[in-house]
Amino acid sequence: MTSLQNTNPQTPMPSVSRRRFLQASAVLAGGAILPRAFAHSRKSKALRLGGPIFLKSDDPDELAREHRRLQYSAAYVPKVDLNDSARIRAIEKAFAAQNVVIAEVGAWVNMLDTDPEKRRKNLAYVTERLALAEAVGALTCVDIAGSFNPTDWAGPDARNLSDEFFEATVENCRKVIDAVKPKRTRFALEMMGWSLPDSADSYLKFIKAINRPAFGAHIDIANIVNTPGRYYQNTALINETFRKLGRWIVSAHAKDIVGKDGHFAETAPGRGGLDYTAYLRNVTALPQAVPLMLEHLSTPEAYDEARQFMIRKANELQIPLG
Questions:
Q1: What is the rounded distance in angstroms from the CA atom of residue 192 to the CA atom of residue 264?
Q2: Model confidence over 139-162: pLDDT tens digits?
């Protein structure tokens, strides 16, 4: 997740053949269909890399050009109010002219706050952010499901793995989607290590239960590396996640993970143990173009290092930049 603003345009789910529909249904029902990883079954598309920029400007054209200067073809949504329709149109036009997709609108609040009034306000905010994503043509609006932890909006709590958590999250997602009825953006949940969805399988359960075409999948592998097994076998984790969620994926985050003082800690891509060869190959082998967004770094210099690592890695793998 990110504290910066985000967005993304969404299109309705494409029609599929009867065979592919039955295959997807079998996967959702817990079937044993295990197609090859995307990385090995499709030719790579261009990588749509994105991240925060630090240009001090409110001009949409200048902002879009700065993304291109940095070789970004995806962006977090610039600051804009839902009621400012003129600026929304200007942002959409400027970024489209530079072939920069608006990847995400962030809605980083606790949809399961234990205080009923705070929960109500948070759901209203998430609904507004989804409406903004739809208005500006972003690929996705993303939030975490939330937490029952009374003091930490994303903190651990035993109830975060309960049926109560799952059912409340399904209800929340349906309410937000049904209030906006988006046609070109999707609402998605951030994968988390201390709450659901914490795996491809738990994400599939949400997709089936929410049962809305406007609900998509957002990938953050670093967030779900929460055991030594997942850390040391993260190549298999990456391949499984993309194999199972592929057709629903709308956006992904790029960061890395490292063991530190007996715990796991986030770090910049290339400084940790994630298999970025597998990550980039899976992202760019999806049938749809999926942005890969840098996040959670503290300085422009840190982002520049991460950006250059991603570009070098793409070049090494002969994956063109979008």
A1: 13
A2: 999 999 999 999 999 999 999 999
Asked whether residue 17 is assigned to any structural domain, the reply reads: no
Helix ranges, 17-152 (H):
18-28, 38-41, 60-69, 85-97, 116-136
Number of domains comprising the chain: 1
Name which of 110, 131, 108, 127 is nearest 5 in CA terms.
108
Containing structural domain, residue 194: 24-316
H or E element at residue 75: strand 74-76
- Nearest-angstrom CA–CA distance, 265 and 34: 31
**Residue 276 in domain:** yes
**In a domain? residue 2:** no
Of 6, 44, 8, nearest to 322 (Cα)?
A: 44
306: Cβ–Cβ under 8 A, 6 or more apart, which residues?
A: 51, 254, 268, 269, 270, 294, 297
Q: Is residue 273 one of the residues assigned to a domain?
A: yes
Token pair of 206, please?
A: 């949400």
Helices (H) and strands (E) in the chain, counts: 12, 10
Q: Model's pTM, two decimal places?
A: 0.86
pLDDT of residue 42: 53
Please write the tens of the pLDDT for every residue from 233-290: 999 999 999 999 999 999 999 999 999 888 899 999 999 999 999 999 999 999 999 9
pLDDT over 70 (residue 303): yes
